[in-house]
Design goal:
Layout: H1 2-9, H2 19-22, H3 26-57, E1 64-67, E2 72-79, E3 84-90, E4 93-98, E5 102-105
Antiparallel strand pairs: 1-2, 1-5, 2-3, 3-4
Length: 121
Amino acid sequence: MNLLSTLFQASPGQPPSGPAGLLQSPLIVMVFIFGIFYFLVLGPMRKKQRETQAMLSRLKKGDEVVTGGGIFGRISALDEERGFVVLQIADNVKVKVTRTAIVGLAPSAGEASPATPPAKS
């Protein structure tokens, strides 16, 4: 009975103290959610962008690459000023694409791509 009387005497306008009261502040909750969002989404995305930019800056003539459209080709010429690359996709077939259209280096013949399941023996 004594516990009930003390609960009823507590003023309802004051937030609880301690960790429970701290999490009831809307600003603290928003900062906490942004922190989680940053470490789970924005951080890895920025790292991937830096890796892609580094790969694009290291491209050279003779590299085998794949474009965003899925075209595999070998770089036959680079134009640094205009930002495009000439890809040879077959004998006597060359296409001009922007440097940003290249999504990665093509896997070599002996190397399995990550999307390809391993061969069953």
